[in-house]
Design goal:
Largest sheet: 7 strands, parallel
CATH architecture of the domain at 2-171 and 202-228 and 290-305: 3-Layer(aba) Sandwich
CATH class of the domain at 2-171 and 202-228 and 290-305: Alpha Beta
Number of helices: 11
Number of strands: 12
Oligomer: single chain
Strand content: 15-25%
Length: about 325
């Protein structure tokens, strides 16, 4: 069975591609700007750009299932044009290409950020409304709009299922991701001050396995929140310190002070051409809803996220094995 994956070189995309290969699937990955992390895997490369529907139609030819992971992830409030182009129009093109190419099932990867976090005292589940405020981050709004397109397409007859992961961590984080970068700094003792907040974290491998189970068994139009476990940044630093043999940072920055510093850090990163350690958008996420339910995925798909301590251990070891974290000298 030929399966196509957009965004295959991303963090979840690589884990998904490897999980599909392990099941004996023939995988076609859409190559746009980079194949980092996919080198050496037994996959078929095919040029594909979600902004160019003709390339998608060609890439989906003969494909039975499409996993759509390609997205523009942004922690900026000034990134709407790019978010809209990739996350909305790109999804629109994927849907149309699936129709033209006779794809039998689409698995669309959305995000927990597409859903409203408030009210904070009520668990977030599949019934939670989409983000709609024009003041919401561009990434959140664009992913909500893209997911709505998929749900409209389902109403019009497209066979699709939707996956909404929370904060992704795990090995095979080649780029690395925003959190992967932060974890490297924490593990190497280069982040002396922690932020007073936390998030729900889920292993990229668990996301991949559950997405395949949803593709194979879920009814058309099904939608699943894939959460894991809520941990504070201090919790994560404590686990990382235990793995690395480092001291846990003793300073925790109050959220109000972090918010005041965020514009300065963002501006400085822009001048140096580096990714900011945190932004106002990421700080908002650290004080969002702690209770995100994966009950539906557990009930219908047998989803059981592994402990975060296992994920952090595997991730830090992967970073060490691949040179992102240098081993201490004797």
């Amino acid at each position: 069975m030929l399966t196509a994956v957009t965004g295959a070189s991303g963090h979840v995309g690589i884990n998904l591609t490897m999980a599909l290969i392990a099941r004996g699937r023939q995988v076609r990955v859409l190559s746009h700007t980079s194949n980092l992390g996919l080198e050496g895997l037994p996959v078929e490369y095919c040029r594909g750009d979600v902004a160019d529907i003709d390339t998608l139609v060609a890439a989906f030819s003969g494909v039975r299932v499409v996993y759509h992971l390609a997205a523009h992830i942004s922690l900026s409030m000034n990134d709407w044009p790019r978010c809209a182009q990739v996350n909305i129009e790109g999804t629109r093109n994927v849907i149309e290409a699936c129709r033209r190419s006779g794809v039998q099932r689409l698995v669309h990867f959305s995000t927990i950020h597409a859903l409203r976090s408030e009210p904070l005292d009520t668990p977030v589940d599949e019934s939670r409304p989409y983000v709609s405020s024009p003041d919401a981050p561009p990434y959140d709004r664009s992913k909500a709009a893209g997911e709505k397109l998929v749900r409209c397409a389902v109403d019009e007859g497209l066979d699709a299922v939707i996956i909404n992961p929370t904060g992704v961590i795990g090995p095979f984080d080649f780029r690395p991701s925003h959190f992967g970068q932060a974890l490297i700094l924490i593990a190497t003792g280069k982040m002396p001050v922690l932020i007073d907040g936390g998030f729900d974290w889920v292993d990229a491998r668990d996301i991949a396995e559950c997405a395949i189970k949803a593709e194979e068994t879920a009814a058309a139009g099904s939608r699943y929140l894939l959460s894991g476990h809520w941990l504070s940044m201090r919790d994560i630093a404590s686990i990382a310190a235990g793995i690395m043999g480092n001291r846990v940072p003793s300073l925790v920055c109050p959220m109000a002070l972090a918010r005041a510093c965020a514009p300065i850090i963002t501006a400085a990163s822009g001048l140096t051409g580096t990714r900011p350690i945190f932004t106002g958008v990421s700080l908002d996420a650290l004080v969002s809803n702690r209770d995100i339910s994966h009950q539906k995925a557990t009930s219908e798909l047998g989803y059981a996220p592994r402990p975060v301590s296992e994920t952090l251990n595997d991730t830090i070891q992967w970073f060490k094995d691949n040179g992102y974290i240098k081993s201490k000298r004797p």
